[in-house]
Design goal:
The chain has 3 helices and 5 strands, in the order ααβαββββ.
């Protein structure tokens, strides 16, 4: 599985299907998180999004573009509502190690109504 396939599968299973356990397949246990709203490690990621999916059962991320080079991948995506309206734009950047997500940075741009 190449880096784009890895990230695509992770987003579908984890973020869109809300399958928290998918993180065990795609994310390293010692995952480094640079978003201050989520703790360090795979377990903290799983806990943070389990709560988010309970609070927002329609949560969905649509990948628009990906750029991959060596062990890094940047993903431009949109958080969309059930009608397909964009709620937020996001750029996620990952470092991949041994076929799993090892480190994460992000930039968010909320949509102004």
């Amino acid at each position: 599985m190449n880096n784009k396939e890895l990230v695509t599968a992770f987003y579908q299973e984890f973020f869109n299907d809300h399958n928290i356990e998918a993180a065990e397949k795609y994310v390293r246990e010692d995952y480094i998180q640079h978003n201050p709203g989520v703790g360090q490690g795979r377990k903290a990621l799983m806990e943070a999004f389990a709560n988010k999916f309970i609070e927002n059962p329609e949560f969905c991320l649509r990948i628009e573009k990906m750029i991959s080079e060596d062990d890094m991948i940047a993903v431009y995506l949109k958080n969309i509502d059930s009608e397909g309206n964009t709620k937020c734009r996001v750029v996620d950047i990952y470092r991949i190690q041994d076929g799993k997500l090892a480190e994460h940075w992000d930039v968010l741009q909320p949509c102004v109504k």
